[in-house]
Amino acid sequence: MSAGPIDPPARLLMGPGPITVYPRVLQAMSAQLVGQYDPFMTATMTETQALYRDVFATANDATVLVDGTSRAGIEAALVSLVAPGDRVLVPRFGRFGHLLVEIAERCGAEVHTIDVPWGQVFAPEAIEAAIREVRPKVLAIVHGDTSTTLAQPLDELGAICREHDVLFYCDTTASLGGNEFQTDAWGLDAVTAGLQKCLGGPSGAAPITLSPRAVEVVESRKSIEAGIRDADSVVRADRIRSNYFDLGQILDYWGPARLNHHTEATTMLYSARECARILLEEGIDASIARHRLHGDAMLAGLQGLGLVPFGDLAHKMTNVVGVEIPEGVHGDAVRSELLADYGIEIGTSFGPLHGRVWRIGTMGYNARRDTVLVTLAALEAVLRRNGARVPTGGGTEAALDSYRAAA
Question: How many whole angstroms separate alpha carbon 293 and alpha carbon 251?
């Protein structure tokens, strides 16, 4: 087989993620590698930790990267905090709550769930009632679930967890950087994220932060002494059941001792560092406002085309919107034509929403006026070709009206 140079087609990624990467991030990723204990390398790791403390809005020392996609961060958090037999409560309001359940079950947890219909979120009282009944060690919840495009309010849950001595873990992959998130102020013990949504990078590094309380749990499960890792070490029944995702060892690697665990993914380190730099240079509040501005314009434009939004708009994420696929229109055919004719990608959804809604993102580098207007204009043309009756210019005009109103 003869393979030529990599040459991907031009794409405008307007789905729920991954998204078009910031050019500055791509440039950072082209930087030369150094050895894993080179002073430049360890200094860059330390800088990245400090940057992500600001991104997560935390003072946690234990703020690092897990090498792998956002799911690697989720698994590292759960496998390191949850021992076999521990009770875990997962409130599910979309696809990714089910993922938390699967991972926690693989950790040997006794998993309990509560559910709301897709398109709704939980009242804090419902979660507190379940905590009283289940008495879990860990509450595991998603902040923004792109499958439903909704964000679960978290600001009251930390106090509830503290009152009942529950560890509070959250997956904020889809929301961090584009929606308000306060690790310390909201009382979170463990938070994981990914780069490929509002942070505007590629998938492949998972920022994570742990409170001192969470670190104490991780440290208590170490099955070996003083970083000595050999076959004669005592094996404890509750030891962390993964080597790669053992946060105790990962923290040792990122900490002052720099104990070898793996070879850091240098290019992804550069990428994560630049994602954080871009966000913090803009300012987190400014980034949230930008995501809200363009998310509101996209929503208005879709409504201007006569499309019906999905879910409770009072809890919609700033960076992605779901709309019902019009009756008589083949959703996947529209998506295929958008991609083939315009180079624009939008998303379908999962489970009960597959084939029922489209998910359209405005996040990271693509949270811009031009991308919103181009996507709406292209979608209008494709909808008309597929038999939908849509107002001429209805999408772009409604979006422009939204921008004018916000000015």
Answer: 38
